[in-house]
User: Fold these one by one.
Assistant:
Number 1:
Amino acid sequence: MSDAERAAVFLAVKRDWRALKVASAAHKDDRKIVFEAVMQDGGALQYASVSLKSDREVVFTAVKNQWRALEDASAELKADRKVMLTAVKQNWLALRYAADGGMITGDREIVLEAVKQDWKALEYASSTLKGDREIVLTAVKQSWKALEDASDGLKSDRVIVLAAVKQSWRALEDASKTLKDDREIVLAAVKQHGPALKYASAKLKADLEVVLAAVKQEWRALEYASAGLKAEARIVLEAARQDWRALDLAAPALRKGGLAAYAQKRQKLFGVPPRVFMRTILVGAQFPSARSARSSGQGGAEEAGGRSNSSSSGGGSVLQKLNGHGVHFAAQLKKRIADFAGVQWGEGHRTILLALGNITKHKAKPKWQKGV
């Protein structure tokens, strides 16, 4: 390569670094020519010779101009702290080019810099730094998903896990066994998504307040409640008000008539006739107690028996879901609730049917109801 030819290529590259792309192999191995190109655009490093891709000054200059130039650097320089820190400060994605298990992914300053930009950088951190509380908390505060990459030790850190669960109930799944037994953390999860009760400890699945909060959010949470609370009428009725299918999840004791006994106790507390109670309290409508009704001077039984009061109360009744579903659906639901209450014949059964029919728009009498 003559001096004149070298000077001509240098001038071409000086005018536009892309001239390096069509230069000869000898010119691509010329330090002065390549250095001129990478000073303009770090991407020019891809056209440099293998030896110059290992030149620290050339690579550092390229990376300083464009962090993506790191992709073309030698493995040795991808482990160079100064080069990597320069790249990561521009974009955390540069951390992806660091060698697995190398010094860079274990460098606290570099990893923290990357995580501050984006929580996803935690994935590339060394196992040691995945156990660094400041780094993990920095990531988790951005997204609860970062908890998945945290060390097992930090999955037992209450502050970190609570910060994650407050963002999303899904973080409870990655929490340690100890924190799945933490009442505040589990409550924070089930108030967002009732079925998150699935990940709670056995102790909290038997906690009345926790389970009730879960069921209020989503009736399907009843599936994960303890056997004892599946026999708790208050909880089952709360779920049934949302969806009649919750009755299938109740304990056998309730399905075999336990609800009837509960209804009788509740009726006495409200001091209203059985039919009024069935039309209002049990099926989810709003109706004042006997005491508040007397104090307001209203006739409780007569007013509660009207159609408008039962259907417009906004009590969240499961029966309000009947409207628009057709006679067959209404009939099946009536039968299911009647069976659930443990009353299938006689005056008690007719009272239930009358109460249900009071809210339902459909007037047709199903075949199974005839003769009752």
Note: The chain has 18 helices and no strands.
Number 2:
Amino acid sequence: MIQGLKYGLGDAAINDRPIGQSHGFPSGHTAAAASGATDLALHCAPGDRAVAAASAAAIALVAGSRVGADEHTVLQVVAGAALGALSTVSVSTRRRAAASASATHFRSETKTGESGLHLALPDTGAYPLRSADKETFSARTCSTALRPI
């Protein structure tokens, strides 16, 4: 997508780099940084403000370095950051919807019959499972501890 925009815009003024070359819109380095940082914040540490702040700082450092090196304008790095983050969120949303559609739902019961741990697992089984006390289950543990709803 990024390269398509760069070459599709051709000699348009928005595509000019500060050093006089073309193919500057949007910043591919900043788009890649924003995509990686967004993925990290969304999937590796969701809800962790420190990780979100560090991710934003990483994007800003890459963007600043591209502007500081006269490789891009501020508009070009802002566009790159937005496209990188939005593309990652878009892919993540589609992936989550597909996994949810193919999920197998499980429920464990406590001894009194009250509902306990509730899980939704994609058919791939590639995601780790954790109980409320953060204990990680293996596939073998889950297959014996949980029953399909």
Note: The chain has two domains: 2-100, 102-148.
Number 3:
Amino acid sequence: MIKLIDKWFNNAVYLTVKIDNTEELKIFEKVLNIRNQKGDVLEVIWGNPYFTILEKINLLCKWLTVHSIIYYVHHTNIVSDQIFDNNCKQLVNMIENNPEIFKESHYHYYMHDFDGSTGFDLPNRLNLHHAKIMGDIADNLIRRHLK
């Protein structure tokens, strides 16, 4: 069995791969760039060359907003504070390094002063269109998480 746990940080996906047999291990060693190996658990970095900076900014804005809705509106969470904080730091870093690109973001209108310290006010800043879409995504994630 192979179990993948993805983590976004510094424009790459980090995967922790749990491998139960040597055949699967050989496949992963050949196919993926393996960072280090600890027994049968591999830390894998998989850079995604297909997302532009703007797409990454948009994805992080949306992800942070959806998880802010889950936490501050529905009073629950499905990710740890550490994961949320790491994504906040990543977004702030991308904004600081790409301010002109950030101005092109779909979400600039409500994230223009985001400093990464909290997502408390993000749900209240959304226009009706984004509030509906992100609210539906949050509801679906909560339902899936509770199964």
Note: The chain is about 55% helix and 20% strand.
